[in-house]
Amino acid sequence: MTGQVNYQGKPLSHGTILFEISGGGFAHGEIKDGQIINVGTSDRGVGVPLGEASVVIQSIETVESKKNRRSEAGGDGGMDYGRDLIPVRYSNPTTSGLSATIERGENVLTFDLTK
């Protein structure tokens, strides 16, 4: 699966995209320079589930990283803080208004996001 994500008429610089297939199944990918890339599931060898999908897109600019506590596993804990580069409604499947039909073969999708 490939495609394009634009925000206010320009390619979205970076982000993530999630496809929630009705009836079950998820796929996720990256957005780099407006291009949808590396779409798949967390199970190796499993392609993108077919069917109607709700789509979620996020693009966050990291503005601060807090690494001042230890995690339960013993590693450095903490959380990245940032600001949304696109309206937060696109990050929720019930408010994004975005959908796609995933079919067999090559799927090329375009999403034009607005304010």
Oligomer: single chain
Helix content: under 10%
Low-confidence stretches: none
Average pLDDT, all residues: 86
> How does the helix and strand content classify structurally?
mainly beta
Tally of domains: 1
Radius of gyration, taken over Cα atoms and rounded to an integer in Å? 16 Å
End-to-end distance, in Å? 26 Å
Q: What global shape is seen? A: globular
- Largest sheet composition: 8 strands, mixed
Q: What is the ordering of alpha helices and beta strands?
A: EEEEEEEEEE
Strand content: over 45%
Q: How many DSSP-defined strands? A: 10
Count the DSSP helices: 0
Structure description:
Residues 65-84 are annotated as: Disordered. This protein is mostly beta strands. It has one domain (2-113). Helix content is 0%, strand content 52%. It has strands at 2-7, 10-11, 14-21, 26-32, 35-40, 51-58, 60-66, 79-84, 99-102, 108-113. The strands form two sheets. Strands 1, 2, 3, 4, 5, 6, 9 and 10 form an eight-stranded mixed β-sheet that branches. Strands 7-8 form a two-stranded antiparallel sheet. A hairpin with a 4-residue loop joins strand 3 and strand 4. It is globular and about 40 Å long. The model has no long low-confidence stretch (mean pLDDT 86).
In short:
With 115 residues, this protein is mostly beta strands. Helix content is 0%, strand content 52%.
